[in-house]
């Protein structure tokens, strides 16, 4: 019985440890280089909030939150980009987000000497511990990228980033990135209607998801590994049907081609996964997509959400599409 219990605990710990995956540099839905907030003071939290007013960065129990343009201690660290960066002068830094983030990362450094580095601790919206990861920040006042993608399906709602010295202080950050919304990251999101690739068909770009629909914004698509693979579409048109579909590859090098009011990003051997009517908020989800699409382990597939927009359609086509997500199973 005792061995069975220990095995169960080991499996649980293993699951927690895999709740986040290290990822390379990316451009998030929100960025923060700490160029616009109040600087020069020492506060409990960064004054002006962070990530375009979508989160807070605080030193709980201390007034150590500090923004500066250069900081000397055991060595002198300068900004990674822009004119300023942030670091804690007392206590460990902690991010809290208004909505979960599926990816988080940025450049970390320290001026506090050996051993350098720290730990990232991840929590969901219910404050459940999702896992931890090592923060690489050599003790030489240089900057190193550290980034993670959520694999739990819950998303990161709180992230602690204590250093390895001085009670968690003196860990610096700059040029941070985060993907907000969707509650959990999985796969690679691409083919946005933000002008970064193929232009939207009738001057209807969007800051989020695909090209803008009659709401003035685009439909977002996120994926999570839970329940055999789940697709979550947001900001579609309430009460108007939409189709989740799968393709074997991306179109236009991942930038898509004009189709209706938006961009078609996935093609070849298209599989219709399911028609889902969005709720009153324009949200629609479909689970079990790996089985529905017949995807085998090792296969790479492209996913998208096509939806009707009969009233107020920006380009008068009457339909639109989300951004795409490419998943390797």
Write the layout of secondary structure elements.
Layout: H1 2-17, E1 20-22, E2 30-32, E3 55-58, E4 65-68, E5 71-72, E6 76-77, E7 85-88, E8 93-109, E9 118-123, E10 129-135, E11 144-150, E12 156-161, E13 172-180, E14 188-190, E15 220-224, E16 230-234, E17 242-247, E18 249-250, E19 257-259, E20 262-264, E21 266-267, E22 271-276, E23 284-287, H2 289-292, E24 300-308, E25 319-321, E26 324-328
Antiparallel strand pairs: 1-11, 2-13, 3-8, 4-7, 5-6, 7-13, 8-11, 8-12, 8-13, 9-10, 9-12, 14-26, 15-16, 16-23, 17-22, 17-24, 18-21, 19-20, 24-25, 24-26
Q: How many H/I helices?
A: 2
How many discrete domains?
2
Average predicted local confidence, pLDDT: 89
- CATH fold description of the largest domain: Jelly Rolls
- Structural category: mainly beta
- Terminus-to-terminus distance: 35 Å
How big is the Rg? 21 Å
Would you count the extended β strands for me?
Answer: 26
Shape: elongated
Summary?
With 329 residues, the protein is mainly beta.
Question: Tags for this entry?
Answer:
2 domains; 6% helix; Immunoglobulin-like; eleven-stranded antiparallel β-sheet; mainly beta; 329 residues; single chain; 40% strand; disordered N terminus; Jelly Rolls; six-stranded antiparallel β-sheet
């Amino acid at each position: 019985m005792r061995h069975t219990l220990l095995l169960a605990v080991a499996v649980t710990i293993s699951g927690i440890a895999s709740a986040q995956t290290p990822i390379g540099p990316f451009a998030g839905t929100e960025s923060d280089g700490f160029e616009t907030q109040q600087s020069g003071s020492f506060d409990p939290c960064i004054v002006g909030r962070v990530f375009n007013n979508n989160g807070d960065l605080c030193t709980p129990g201390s007034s150590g939150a500090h923004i500066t343009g250069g900081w000397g201690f055991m060595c002198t660290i300068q900004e990674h980009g822009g004119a300023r960066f942030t670091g804690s002068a007392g206590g460990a830094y902690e991010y809290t987000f208004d909505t979960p983030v599926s990816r988080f990362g940025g450049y970390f450094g320290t001026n506090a000497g050996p051993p350098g580095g720290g730990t990232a601790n991840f929590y969901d919206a219910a404050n459940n511990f999702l896992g931890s990861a090592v923060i690489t920040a050599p003790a030489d006042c240089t900057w190193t990228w550290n980034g993670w993608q959520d694999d739990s399906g819950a998303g990161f709602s709180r992230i602690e980033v204590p250093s390895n010295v001085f009670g968690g202080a003196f860990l610096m950050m700059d040029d941070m990135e985060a993907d907000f919304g969707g509650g959990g990251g999985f796969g690679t999101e691409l083919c946005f209607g933000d002008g970064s690739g193929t232009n939207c068909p009738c001057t209807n770009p969007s800051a989020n998801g695909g090209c803008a629909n009659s709401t003035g914004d685009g439909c977002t698509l996120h994926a999570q590994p839970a329940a055999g693979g789940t697709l979550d579409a947001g900001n579609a048109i309430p009460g108007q049907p939409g189709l989740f579909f799968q393709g074997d590859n991306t179109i236009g090098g991942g930038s898509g081609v004009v189709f209706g009011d938006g961009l078609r990003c996935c093609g070849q051997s298209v599989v219709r996964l399911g028609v889902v009517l969005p709720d009153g908020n324009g949200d629609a989800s479909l689970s079990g997509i790996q089985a529905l699409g017949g995807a085998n382990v090792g296969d790479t597939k492209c996913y998208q959400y096509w939806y009707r927009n009969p009233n107020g359609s920006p380009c008068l086509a009457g339909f639109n599409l989300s951004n795409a997500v490419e998943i390797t199973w």
